[in-house]
Each structure stands twice: as structure tokens, then as C-alpha cells.
């Protein structure tokens, strides 16, 4: 079990979200390992909260596929299967494409510049062969696009899935090199963002996923 530092002293509504965020982050970074059993009392004591917000957070994580529960038997972190990795990459591929399609039409100039900066960070990480940085850069870019959709329903659904995506995609691979074909796709996406061409941005995202991700 991770050693949580710092007690949580928040309003009841924010407390539940904070507990959820702490546990989810520990699962994503591996502090809670796949298959590891979790005791709500231990987490509650570590965070200085009652067991209720911990139980609510665990139930929420169960719905998202990060936790599995068996009444009166166990609560544990789910194992990561190859099928789960493939499904997560597929979900991320389409969600990122849709996010780009909506966001590109609605961005102001400052947001457009920021999206291009994040895209260049991803390109650089891939070119350097740094998979961890590439994943981090991808999620920074993805979540920025989600926010720029200005669609609260899309944003809520996607954010509910973000921890499962991060954990599962961490087990997959991003390409370690940017060849001429991939470089051309990045250029195409940059042009689409700059010209507010939503359909072209979406298609470029789909093709970039196909070119830079692996299920191995």
C-alpha cells in the first residue's frame, strides 16, 4: 500500500473527489499494483478521513474497471490484460479524434497556440524514443483538447475514464521513432489546427494513432 502523505481537509463534496483522485493516481503509477488487495480502513486512516468517502471512491473505481470487489471477500486492483490495453488504445484513438474535431472549431488564438506547443512536445518525445514522456505528452494534449471542446457532457464522460486509460495505456507502447510518414502526419495535424479544419484534424489524429501505437 502506498504511504499517502498529508491529511485531506476539504468539504464533503470535494473530499470524495480528492480521495478518488489519490487512490486512482496510486493505481496509475503502480503504487497499488495489479492484483493487490485494498483495505478501506487502511486508506481512511492514512488519509485521515472516514471510511465512507473511501468506499464511495472504490465503488467509482470499480465502475471504471480499476478495482474489482467481491462482497465480504476482497477488494483488489484489477489485472491488466492485453485485451484491456487494446480496448483502451482504441477508445483513446476515437475519443482524441472527436475531441480534436470539436476543439479545433472552438479554440481561440491562445488555445490554438497552446495546442500546437503540446503537439510539438509529443512529437519531440516520440522522436527521442522516450515512451514515458510520450505518454505524458499525449495525455496533456488529449486532456487539453477535451477541455477546449466546451462540451460538459463529453468532458465528464472522458474525465471519468482518464485514470483507466492512463493505467492501461501505460502498459502499451508508443513508437520510439518518428519516420518521414509520421512526421508528415504531425505536419498535417498542425496545419489542420492552424486552419481550424476540424475534419482534417480528426482524421490526422486517427492516422497518428495507427502509426505511433502498438498493442505488443
UniProtKB/TrEMBL annotation:
<keyword id="KW-0804">Transcription</keyword>
<dbReference type="Pfam" id="PF07729">
    <property type="entry name" value="FCD"/>
</dbReference>
<dbReference type="InterPro" id="IPR036388">
    <property type="entry name" value="WH-like_DNA-bd_sf"/>
</dbReference>
<dbReference type="InterPro" id="IPR036390">
    <property type="entry name" value="WH_DNA-bd_sf"/>
</dbReference>
<dbReference type="Pfam" id="PF00392">
    <property type="entry name" value="GntR"/>
</dbReference>
<dbReference type="InterPro" id="IPR011711">
    <property type="entry name" value="GntR_C"/>
</dbReference>
<dbReference type="GO" id="GO:0043565">
    <property type="term" value="F:sequence-specific DNA binding"/>
</dbReference>
<dbReference type="InterPro" id="IPR000524">
    <property type="entry name" value="Tscrpt_reg_HTH_GntR"/>
</dbReference>
<keyword id="KW-0805">Transcription regulation</keyword>
<keyword id="KW-0238">DNA-binding</keyword>
<dbReference type="InterPro" id="IPR008920">
    <property type="entry name" value="TF_FadR/GntR_C"/>
</dbReference>
<dbReference type="InterPro" id="IPR000485">
    <property type="entry name" value="AsnC-type_HTH_dom"/>
</dbReference>
<dbReference type="GO" id="GO:0003700">
    <property type="term" value="F:DNA-binding transcription factor activity"/>
</dbReference>
<protein>
    <submittedName>
        <fullName>Transcriptional regulator, GntR family protein</fullName>
    </submittedName>
</protein>
<feature type="domain" description="HTH gntR-type">
    <location>
        <begin position="13"/>
        <end position="80"/>
    </location>
</feature>
Amino acid at each position: 500500500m502506498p504511504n499517502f502523505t498529508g491529511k485531506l481537509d476539504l468539504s464533503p463534496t470535494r473530499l470524495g473527489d480528492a480521495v478518488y483522485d489519490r487512490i486512482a493516481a496510486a493505481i496509475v503509477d503502480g503504487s497499488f499494483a495489479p492484483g493487490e488487495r485494498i483495505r478501506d480502513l487502511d486508506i481512511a486512516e492514512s488519509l485521515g478521513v472516514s471510511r465512507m468517502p473511501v468506499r464511495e471512491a472504490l465503488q467509482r473505481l470499480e465502475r471504471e474497471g480499476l478495482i474489482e470487489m467481491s462482497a465480504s471477500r476482497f477488494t483488489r486492483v484489477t489485472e491488466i490484460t492485453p485485451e484491456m490495453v487494446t480496448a483502451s488504445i482504441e477508445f483513446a484513438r476515437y475519443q482524441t479524434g472527436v475531441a480534436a474535431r470539436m476543439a479545433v472549431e472552438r479554440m481561440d488564438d491562445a488555445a490554438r497556440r497552446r495546442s500546437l506547443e503540446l503537439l510539438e512536445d509529443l512529437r519531440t518525445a516520440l522522436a527521442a524514443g522516450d515512451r514515458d514522456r510520450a505518454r505524458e505528452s499525449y495525455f496533456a494534449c488529449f486532456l487539453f483538447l477535451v477541455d477546449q471542446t466546451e462540451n460538459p457532457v463529453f468532458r465528464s464522460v472522458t474525465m471519468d475514464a482518464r485514470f483507466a486509460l492512463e493505467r492501461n495505456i501505460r502498459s502499451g507502447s508508443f513508437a520510439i521513432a518518428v519516420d518521414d510518414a509520421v512526421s508528415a502526419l504531425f505536419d498535417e495535424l498542425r496545419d489542420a489546427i492552424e486552419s481550424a479544419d476540424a475534419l482534417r484534424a480528426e482524421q490526422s489524429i486517427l492516422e497518428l494513432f495507427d502509426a505511433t501505437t502498438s498493442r505488443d
